[in-house]
């Protein structure tokens, strides 16, 4: 059997499901270990039976077990880099790249005079935000905290693989935070507890998805406790659900009546980000 035949058969099988044929091709390329050009050279040759068996097992998992393709591949791309992901971490989302981009713009604008920018990422998961910020802004000295020790293991593996210098720690919110920060960034779990999620999303860790009755618990907890951890001039940057804009503004005003609050849409036009600036930020 050739790779071509195996791939065509799998794609045909996918047509009877709601899954993406493109993901199956990616899966075979990844499992083969070939570069794209090698792949097309080997495409019509007899393939290694071990590879074919592995491919069959994995694509069936994808087609019939509702496992996210990123979990099967073991990685996902974020801000141009490859991050290890597994069932213990949230799969990095496209819109979260925009949060990173915004924080980089803020740090260029308001913190550029600092020698080091001290930052913290609460609920860092895979470390996608944390590591991207650390690598994009060398002045950023950032810590990543998460309550899940399994997630922190994944974040540490990413830190090593991508040669970044983030300090990752298991911590219930601020518990392990030390000192005061210029920037606090967080994409906490924000889905309301009883909301029904897509069956594939449901395979992601619930601790990373659900944020209390209205999905707002972590914003409340973070903002209620943040003040002592922030410098006088500081930025809080949140991602949130697109229906949570008003509620988050209210929580922000409750604890930071002295702040400038700016809310932004993502590229899809959805209300997705809230920035809270203190001391002139
Ligand atoms: N900060 C990580 C991300 O944005 C994890 C978020 C989470 O687990 N809720 O992907």
UniProtKB/TrEMBL annotation:
<dbReference type="InterPro" id="IPR002052">
    <property type="entry name" value="DNA_methylase_N6_adenine_CS"/>
</dbReference>
<dbReference type="Pfam" id="PF05175">
    <property type="entry name" value="MTS"/>
</dbReference>
<dbReference type="InterPro" id="IPR019874">
    <property type="entry name" value="RF_methyltr_PrmC"/>
</dbReference>
<feature type="domain" description="Methyltransferase small">
    <location>
        <begin position="114"/>
        <end position="201"/>
    </location>
</feature>
<dbReference type="InterPro" id="IPR029063">
    <property type="entry name" value="SAM-dependent_MTases_sf"/>
</dbReference>
<dbReference type="GO" id="GO:0032259">
    <property type="term" value="P:methylation"/>
</dbReference>
<protein>
    <recommendedName>
        <fullName>peptide chain release factor N(5)-glutamine methyltransferase</fullName>
        <ecNumber>2.1.1.297</ecNumber>
    </recommendedName>
</protein>
<dbReference type="GO" id="GO:0003676">
    <property type="term" value="F:nucleic acid binding"/>
</dbReference>
<dbReference type="InterPro" id="IPR004556">
    <property type="entry name" value="HemK-like"/>
</dbReference>
<dbReference type="InterPro" id="IPR007848">
    <property type="entry name" value="Small_mtfrase_dom"/>
</dbReference>
<keyword id="KW-0808">Transferase</keyword>
<keyword id="KW-0949">S-adenosyl-L-methionine</keyword>
<dbReference type="InterPro" id="IPR050320">
    <property type="entry name" value="N5-glutamine_MTase"/>
</dbReference>
<keyword id="KW-0489">Methyltransferase</keyword>
<dbReference type="GO" id="GO:0102559">
    <property type="term" value="F:peptide chain release factor N(5)-glutamine methyltransferase activity"/>
</dbReference>
